[in-house]
UniProtKB/TrEMBL annotation:
Pfam families: Glyco_hydro_67C, Glyco_hydro_67M, Glyco_hydro_67N. InterPro entries: A-glucoronidase_C_sf (IPR037054), GH (IPR017853), Glyco_hydro_67_aGlcAse (IPR011395), Glyco_hydro_67_aGlcAse_N (IPR005154), Glyco_hydro_67_C (IPR011099), Glyco_hydro_67_cat (IPR011100), Hex-like_dom2 (IPR029018). Its EC number is 3.2.1.131. It comes from Belliella aquatica. This is Xylan alpha-1,2-glucuronidase. Residues 116-435 form the Glycosyl hydrolase family 67 catalytic domain.
Length: 682
């Protein structure tokens, strides 16, 4: 977003914005105008001139352009819909940015300025883009007191106290950043919701934010606490089938729309981790969702109903609970409800197999929920570029309609013909000067936006673009650092949870290792529940000899994943309890493989420090030093992870460390007693 200076610029880059014309007037078009001026100043240190006689750049809605003067493919552009845009050359070699709406023009203009920054010319056949997913939203787990659940980069950027009278520049910067990557919705509040946000006092504040975001094409959404009719409406119940409750929500929703006529809708976490929900009244998730859906339908809003529902009172494998609860409800939800499903069945682990609900509910639109904030991947200090993780899940074949039934096709609605399509990303931003703590974690926000726009986009392209837009266009920097980014998530998997291990993080804050976590109020919040380590082996048996969570996937996967010798090793311990001496594909036993994965993660984290040091001078000193110190933390803590986990599991395997794996510096007791101070909690 800085539009840093372009050295040795080519003519097409300079001429491309030197003189321009924008047809029409609106707040959004004014933003485009500012953006072009800002880019001219940043790239070339000149002020682009508007409305000259022969502008080289023309930005216009189709309806504002004279098709006799310019040649363009009207039908093709009309078909791009609300948010789509085209960038092409006219017969007189002007660049035309065309769209059907002002927001389409905003997206097209950002895209064009990014091309100039990257030095990529508009191809002769032109660019025609439209998003594959309609609702591309960030979920802020921000509390009204400005703490952020699972947030590691400062406080919430929403300053509720100063709202509605003060609109901070940061809100506009936020909107600008989101619009530049196509994000068009923001859920302002935590899923563990506070009903206060639905009071008149807060709605005035929400309205102020909605007004500020509107010209950027961003709608606001709120989390709705299911018990609000009791807490705010003084009703005795929140039963979704009770008429007073239904009326309360109708009235409340009307009030919301009086303030915010284009309000996006409600997000609900119900019957999960202590949140109230329809279960309290013996009702189903569909009963709850439909009540809100009916209240919001007259205003055109939607309900994003979360599937993250599991209970400590069910002895069944947590992996299976959401599927078991929701699948029988397929077809029962109103058509303005979309069920929001996390990428995996447990909880945002460094690696999870895709959630078995994808493919299981063809009559219900399902949306993807990714976590951008790194609750389980080393918080803000560990570099993990998450695009490969998102891409891995989106590309998984569910086999629901035979081969070629990838998760992405379920999310974009194409597999089952749903027009309601959405993606949510749990935001990683806060009041830190660089927004995300780690400079490189801005790349995860960016990657999320890109994949929400096009879930078929690939990580390599995303990393390449992000680096070029963020730092420079120098291939001696881009090539090695891109490779480092692309390998970084796998590196984290290696030193945290290799071979399908999961949820072995320290209790509550989930930052460091905690494979020994056991006991407490809920088994499904402990590590021993998930790894099941004993002298006979390690791993959770989810085949039909165990919990049979595998039975929730389609036939092809059941047979491949159900066999200890054919399951991809990355998922091995997720589905199987494996003897320590079992031989893996490389001929080495499980224990040796486990140890070698941990060591590999450490080796890579250390190598990243050396690589980054060799980049000195290629980027500005400030970001260089900041990133370097975080990388050193990561390298140090990868050792902590390796040693703690290998000492812990080694008690059961009773095997020596294979050669090449460094012996730990301390004993197991040291690690179990080690409690790092000031780790951000929940
Ligand atoms: C888990 C977090 C918890 C969230 C919950 C959720 O530990 O803080 O409230 O997910 O998604 O990842 O509702």
């Amino acid at each position: 977003m800085q539009y840093y200076p372009i050295e040795n610029a080519q003519n097409w880059q300079k001429e491309g914005i030197a003189e321009y014309q924008i047809n029409g007037t609106s707040p959004t078009l004014a933003i485009i105008n500012d953006e072009i001026k800002r880019a001219g100043k940043g790239f070339f240190n000149f002020e682009p001139a508007k409305n000259k006689k022969n502008p080289k750049l023309i930005i216009s809605k189709l309806s504002d352009l004279n098709s006799a003067t310019f040649q363009f493919n009207k039908e093709k552009i009309a078909a791009l819909g609300e948010d789509g845009f085209s960038i092409s050359k006219s017969q007189n070699s002007e660049t035309l940015i065309l769209a059907n709406t002002d927001i389409g023009l905003l997206y097209g203009s950002f895209h064009y300025l990014q091309l100039i920054q990257k030095g990529s010319e508009v191809p002769t056949e032109g660019i025609f883009q439209s998003p594959k997913i309609k609702h591309r939203v960030l979920n802020h787990w921000d509390n009204l007191d400005r703490t952020v659940e699972r947030g590691y980069s400062g406080f919430s950027i929403w300053n509720w106290h100063r709202l509605p009278r003060h609109i901070d520049q940061q809100y506009l910067d936020y909107a600008r950043a989101n619009a530049s990557i196509g994000i068009n919705g923001t859920v302002l509040t935590n899923v563990n919701a506070n009903s206060l946000v639905l009071t008149t006092e807060y709605l005035e504040k929400v309205k102020a934010l909605a007004d500020a975001f509107r010209p950027y094409g961003i709608k606001v959404y709120l989390t709705a606490r299911f018990s609000s009719p009791i807490e705010l409406g003084r009703l005795k119940t929140a039963d979704p089938l009770n008429e007073d409750v239904q009326n309360w929500w109708k009235e409340k929703t009307k009030e919301v729309y009086d303030y915010i006529p284009d309000f996006g809708g409600f997000v609900v976490k119900a019957d999960s981790e202590g949140q109230p929900g329809p279960h309290n009244y013996g009702r189903t998730q569909a009963d709850g969702a439909n009540m809100l859906a009916d209240a919001i339908a007259p205003f055109g809003g939607i309900v994003m109903w979360r599937a993250f529902v599991y209970s400590e009172n069910t002895p069944d494998d947590r992996h299976k609970q959401a599927y078991n609860e929701f699948k029988p409800l397929d077809g029962e939800f109103r058509n303005n409800v979309i069920v929001q499903v996390k990428n995996g069945a447990i909880d945002f682990q460094p690696r999870e197999p895709f959630h078995p609900m994808f493919g299981a509910m063809p009559q219900t639109p399902l949306m993807m929920e990714f976590q951008i904030t790194q609750e389980y991947l080393g918080h803000d200090t560990h570099l993990a570029f998450l695009a490969p993780m998102y891409e891995e899940v989106l590309k998984e074949d569910t086999f629901v309609n035979g081969k070629g039934s990838e998760v992405a096709k379920i999310i974009d609605g194409s597999l089952d013909g749903h027009s309601l399509a959405a993606m949510a990303g749990v935001a990683n931003i806060g009041t830190d000067r660089n927004w995300t703590g780690h400079h490189f974690h801005q790349a995860n926000w960016y990657a999320y936006g890109k994949l929400a726009w096009n879930p078929y986009e690939n990580s390599e392209k995303i990393a390449d673009d992000w680096l070029r837009l963020t730092f420079n266009n120098d291939d001696t920097f881009i090539t090695p650092i891109k490779e480092m980014m692309l390998k970084s998530r796998e590196m984290v998997v290696n030193y945290m949870t290799p071979l399908g291990l999961h949820h072995i993080m320290a209790e509550s804050h989930h930052y460091g290792p905690g494979p020994w976590v056991t006991g407490g109020s809920r088994a499904d919040w402990t590590s021993t529940y998930y790894h099941q380590a004993s002298e006979t082996g390690v791993g959770f048996d989810r085949t039909n000899s165990g919990s049979n969570a595998l039975g929730q996937y389609f036939e092809n996967l059941q047979s491949v994943w159900g066999n200890i010798n054919s399951i991809p090793e990355k998922h091995l311990l997720w589905f199987h309890h494996v003897p320590w001496d079992h031989k893996l594909q490389n001929g080495e036993n499980l224990w040796n493989n486990l140890a070698m994965h941990y060591q590999k993660g450490v080796d890579e984290a250390r190598a990243n420090v050396t690589l980054w040091e060799s980049m000195k001078g290629k980027i500005d000193q400030e970001r260089f030093e900041h990133t370097l110190s975080f990388m050193k933390i990561q390298a140090e803590e990868s050792v902590w992870w390796r040693d703690a986990c290998l000492l812990y599991f080694g008690q059961f395997s009773k095997m020596p460390l294979p050669s090449g794996v460094e012996p730990p510096k301390h004993d197991l007791e040291y690690y179990t007693n080690y409690k790092p101070k000031n780790v951000p909690g929940i």
